[in-house]
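Q: I'm teaching a short session on how sequence maps to structure, and I want students to see two examples side by side rather than one. Could you give me a first protein with its sequence written out and its structure tokens following it? Keep the formatting plain so it prints cleanly on a handout.
A: Of course. Example one:
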Amino acid sequence: MIRAYTFLMRPTVGQRVALAEMLRDHCSLYNGALQERRDAYRHASKTSVTYGQQSAQLKEIRAFDPERQGRWSFSSQQATLRRLDKAFAAFFRRVKSGDTPGYPRFRGVNWFDTVAFPKDGDGCGWDSTPHDPVTRVRFQGIGYVRVNQHRPVVGNVKTISVKREGKHWYVVLTAEQAQPEPLPTTGSVVGIDLGIVNFLADSDGAFVPGPRLGRKAAAKLEAAQQALAQFPRVRRDKRTGNHRRAVERVADLHRRVRRQRLDHAHKTALDLVREHDFIAHEDLKIRNMVKAPGPKPDAETPGGFMPNGASAKAGLNRSVNDAGWGVFLTILHAKAESAGREVIAVDPRNTSRTCPECGHVAKENRPTQEKFHCVSCGHTAHADTVGALNVLRAGLVRCEAQPA
């Protein structure tokens, strides 16, 4: 089993400068490799450049520019080139499937915030001595950087990454560890229905209120973004201290909301995993749910368009993204795997329109967002609870149908 750990680093002033230079040079390598691929495809009879060809050029690049590219780990530079190769592979895969993805783009210095080291001991080293109160991580070209290790790392460290978030620096470890002991069985099963007003409703009739963290921070974020917009667009080397602090203020607000959302998702998922042996949830296609509606041309007015509800859909999309369903489901599956629990995703179609008493399916069964009233048998309940109950039943049926 592979588990990730994220720790805050506490670099010195000189190490901060060196870390920023490492990101800048890896960003330059990424953009240079992207430009080579673009040029080869456009001007060399649509020739494709592979990762292997670009990786073979690294030795010459390091010898040509020893002050910038030559001082960093060879393996980390290979990881940067592999990152570009994965971007192109994802692009062509989506094109083949009929989507319209964006072509891989050049990265600005502020948008390239991660450098990966594929192996512990190759250009990096995790130093966590049991009797030493200070934990350090070593990077080639930078040295030993102090780390705020707030919990022990279990297992063998496999990969190490450096990540910048605003003015903070983090080290991300992946460790291979044995399968932990499963939690004691409880004999309980549950189905959950995700929403916005109620973040979660379960089949037992309980509700978890929606935190709406983005909406609560919207006023502060709007003020910070307006303050940032007052600064003119100038080159990076000509920006003032006030401009830098305005950028950091916006980044800090976004980071705070993201961490609060993660904290809420972790706590909610942990409660479910501790209390239930089997959890069923809707197999939501969140990316499709937040798509903007297409334009509606007006047949009577050439060049005109009819209202398509884009404004209302934009508000709904913001609420869906603010809820963080995708993050929560990812965390739920990870915690269930560690605890020995079973989690199953089921088809969400008609789960909130099907009567749990008589099985009648109709749109009229749900007259409002919260109320469920079966037009066939008269059963009344909360619509989210009905949806969670139908999700649980579908999950149990699917679990029994799966081959042993």
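Q: Perfect. Now a second example for contrast.
A: Example two:
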Amino acid sequence: MRIGLVCPYSLTVPGGVQAQVLGLARALRAHGHPTRVLAPCDGPPPDAWVTPLGNSMPTAANGSMAPLAPDLSAQLRLIRAANDEDFDVINLHEPLAPGVGVTTCVVKPAPLVGTFHAAGVSGAYRSLGPVVRWLAGRLDLRVAVSSDAEDLARTYLRGGYERVFNGIEIAYFAEAEPSPVDGRPTILFLGRHEERKGLEVLLAAMTDLPRDVRLWVAGEGPDTEKLARRTSGDPRVEWLGRISDAEKAARMAGATVYCAPSLKGESFGVVLLEAMAAGTPIVASDLPGYRKVARPGIDAVLTAPGDATALARSLLSVIVDTDRAAQLVASGRSRAEQFSMDRLASCYLQLFERLAE
């Protein structure tokens, strides 16, 4: 079966959807199915089986800035590549994001499976109701990665949805060489620096933690400069900027604890699964999207979103109580195996084969 995966976001910019698309492509190819990814790329494509559709431009989407390619040249490249490849099925991730996903829905060069990732609210869905419902009607099968993602899509787009999970490449994180920490307790934050990711809450929690606790802050965003300026006098906070996937895995493996202090808008906690696979205990906000992968008190410590004092207390408990941290790690490793990319590829293949029939 010749499979096409279309991603609306630039593959050279780190992101959850991009990681899912690339990981799924590798797993599908390992299953013996010729698979090609069509997506924007700001620079060389990450692999030979990726067809780059041109550069992206920051575009407001779902309360954030997304690296989309809504320009005409990207759409023409998409149409030409999809026709040349003669796919048996095309899987669109975030199919209604502006750009190449919408174009694929319009031209429909093969049977289409749309995977919906976003949760929370969507101003575009609300304001463009008839248009997005028509586009969604072009999909032959709709998939949602979580109940939150399904609720958002069903509210505005109607229709029925198959539920699948997001997957991770277990070995990539489990076998990563840990970054050195010099014996210091080290917290890792990874994500876009914007309000909903809760970095400001984590920085406030640092004031209640011992002076030997270090914080690695990876990523960037609209709040980076403001938050970095606020912590400029604190040598414990290290601003790493945007990091590669390899460094992400190494930092996760080396950290004492991974912290995800998001306030809202998380439909599925892939990053928590990555930390579990890397063997790192987790402290995260108690959000529905995170509860889907991390069982409270078993796979992770979950705290009230936005409560810096409670977050500091939870982080310190994991840092100090090594037995508890070890229990979280053991349970987390087992939990992560249930969300392997190989299992996810098998789920998608069943959907693709059913659609082909």
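Q: What should students look for in example two?
A: Point them to this: The mean pLDDT is 94. Also worth mentioning: The domain at 3-167+340-356 is CATH 3.40.50.2000 (Rossmann fold).
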